[in-house]
Write a structure and sequence with these properties.
Layout (H helix, E strand, L loop, with lengths): L43 E5 L4 H12 L3 E6 L3 H13 L4 E5 L5 H15 L4 E4 L15 H23 L7 E5 L12 H21 L5 E7 L5 H6 L2 H5 L13 H12 L10 E4 L7
Parallel strand pairs: 1-2, 1-4, 2-3, 4-5, 5-6, 6-7
Length: 285
Amino acid sequence: MTDYPKPPFPAQAQAVPGSQSKMQPSPDCGEQSYVGSGRLAGKIALITGADSGIGRAVAIAFAREGADVAVAYLNEHDDAKETARWVEQAGRQCLLLPGDIAQKAHCQALVDKTVERFGRIDVLVNNAAFQMTHETFEEIPDEEWVMTFDVNITAIFRLCQAALKHMRPGASIINTSSINSDLPKPTLLAYATTKGAIANFTGGLAQLLGPQEIRVNCVAPGPIWTPLIVSTMPDEEVQNFGGNTPLGRPGQPVEVAPIYVLLASDEASYITGQRYGVTGGKPML
């Protein structure tokens, strides 16, 4: 808790979607620290947004717990190759799947290619997200609002629907919501709205899939140090990011990954329809 960096951080604006390799300080995704214990041995996981940040940390943790991983990402090829390197170093297989999940056909292709390679899907992690900062409601472009929904929530619907036929009883779906689902940040209005939708989608889908013995949960991170931050927020917010939490700093991706491991594992066999906050002490409603 005391070793991770606290703000202020250096100004470091990047173009969307951002590159983890250029961030200062570099996010900790568990590359040197996460130790597995076979909790996901033999499982197959498809993780979106797994090139960097929370997605990379989850991919590394899953691999060290014994899972093979399909890494879906937009176009951050160098970051994705680095994720694959850590997955393979753990002795597991990694399938890299670039492309835009805002496109319906690509959502289907992600599932098809994962199943073609691995035969099934045991864990689907819907983690990819898009956001942009706007100081006023009037300046939010219509096309950006639509894209935010396409990436953040419509893609989850499509991926879940496509993956379901390849999931067996005991499988798990884990969606990434946000503390914004309870405490919407006004300058992230579109993003916050989708994160509330993800929380409700999770609760409803868990009830629909309960009879099929497929569990659905979501994780609600607070301020986590990832490329999404430096590529979508103003310099001042980046420099002070996470400083307003009780712990006085942003979380690192590796600090979020363990809850995904739990929810993906058979240890969570009676946990479904829930939302788990990882917020550095910021309370959720």
